[in-house]
Amino acid sequence: MPAQHSPVATGPARTGTVVMGIETSCDETGVGLVRDGELLGEALSTSMDQHARYGGVVPEIAARAHVQALVPCVRSALASAGLRPADIGAIAVTAGPGLATALHVGVAAAKAYATALGVPLYGVHHLAGHLAADLVDGEALPDPLIALIVSGGHTSLLRVGDLARDPIVHLGDTLDDAAGECFDKVARVLGLPYPGGPAVDREAVGHDRTALAFPRPLTGRTDAAYTFSFSGLKTAVARWAESHPDTTIPPGDVIASFQEAVVDVLTAKAIRACRDHGIDDLLVVGGVAANSRLRELAAQRCADAGIRLRIPARRRCTDNGVMIASLGDLLVRSGAAPSAPDLAAMPGAFLDRAQLGVPEPALHAA
Ligand code: KG4
Ligand code: ZN
Questions:
Q1: 335 alpha carbon – ligand 2 mean position (Å)
Q2: Of 58, 64, 72, nearest to 22 (Cα)?
Q3: How far is CA 344 from each of CA 121, 227, 339, 341, 348, rounded to the nearest angstrom?
Q4: 347: which DSSP letter?
Q5: Is 93 within 8 Å of 122 (Cβ atoms)?
Q6: Which of 72, 80, 114, 272 is buried most, with the most CB atoms less than 10 Å from its CB?
Q7: What are 88's strand-pairing partners?
Q8: Predicted local distance difference test score (pLDDT) of residue 363
Q9: Which residues of the chain have pLDDT under 50?
Q10: The whole model's pTM is what?
């Protein structure tokens, strides 16, 4: 059968456009509505509880939960904004990276809404969405800035210019586990509930973070300055727990010492990247940026180094639809061409620009 012309609008959306953002890359179904940097409405539904007994996200369960939650979330976000579907002028959606089954739900829904409403579709990179997480709370992002992304699946130090237009430069990434993954796995070893990051954060409060000196991986003088590795630290904590079954050290001290090792490495390398590149603005984003000790230590070290620190409010650090709507809004206002109407989910998408599925001619013109 010959290909049909898609009714999805292919010209860029204009300023004054209500952008609906859809996020379904993992276990959160998020919808946000943003216009010219202003948050109009939002809704969030999580399937986290359904995964808890498996100790990690089960892709099929996450996908089914997205199917069930997506339309109600769209309705709820619209209701909270006092808007109707016809008011939506563009759709932004996380096209990757993430769980394939979960991404497909959001991308399919976004294409359906874009087609039904006759509005442009913008596929965006999930991690670039994290970078845009707090744009609705005020200030534009400094340009350039150093960004530390710490999520469940990624840990990267980046040099970011104009988020909507410029290529994103990776200064360093993790060689193995992501910081969030390390929190989740160590929490499991130490008998804490899923998700591990928030549990570690809670249990460490008021405990002695100097009780045990866990390793600080890749912090030697000859190690790659901006590269991370967390699997050795995870193993070190597991080995310690195995070989000290009768320890008198309080569990909270072990947890606090582990957490300190992670946040020490993250903040030290982020500050080093700022210094080496002569950039005085650091942005810390992603689920692990909700960690209270990371926030405290980053604030302290940035103040000492004369670096301006920006970390979104805690509830904007973990996955949500507002960050995707914010990034879509940024793309719309920068005059970006919409993504191709046949946008596909890209579970392994590498972060080298904010938009995904950019039509070839638009990419070459950029
Ligand atoms: O960004 P995010 O919501 O999802 C991904 O894109 O991966 O990050 C989820 C990760 C999980 O590993 C979770 O344990 C971690 O963020 N996390 C935390 C905290 N809150 C969430 N880690 C440490 N402390 C927290 N308070
Ligand atoms: Zn995320």
A1: 26
A2: 72
A3: 12, 30, 10, 9, 12
A4: T
A5: yes
A6: 114
A7: 18
A8: 63
A9: 1-5
A10: 0.95
Q: How far is the CA of 16 from the centre of ligand 2 (A)?
A: 27
Q: Quick check: CB of 197 below 6 Å from ligand 1?
A: yes
Residue 288 Cβ contacting ligand 1 at under 6 Å: yes
Quick one: pLDDT at residue 5? 46
CB 171 within 8 A of CB 157: yes
Task: Tell me the two tokens of residue 3.
Answer: 């290909």
Q: What is the pLDDT of residue 113?
A: 98
- SS3 string, the chain, reads CCCCCCCCCCCCCCCCCEEEEEECCCCEEEEEEEECCEEEEEEEEECHHHHHCCCCCCHHHHHHHHHHHHHHHHHHHHHHHCCCHHHEEEEEEEEECCCHHHHHHHHHHHHHHHHHHCCCEEEEEHHHHHHCCCHHHCCCCCCCEEEEEECCCCEEEEEECCCCCCCCEEEEEECCCCHHHHHHHHHHHCCCCCCHHHHHHHHHCCCCCCCCCCCCCCCCCCCCCCCECCHHHHHHHHHHHHHCCCCCCCHHHHHHHHHHHHHHHHHHHHHHHHHHHCCCEEEEECHHHHCHHHHHHHHHHHHHHCCEEECCCHHHCCCCHHHHHHHHHHHHHCCCCCCCCCCCCCCCCCCCCCEECCCHHHHHHC
**Ligand 1 within 6 A of 27 CB?**
no
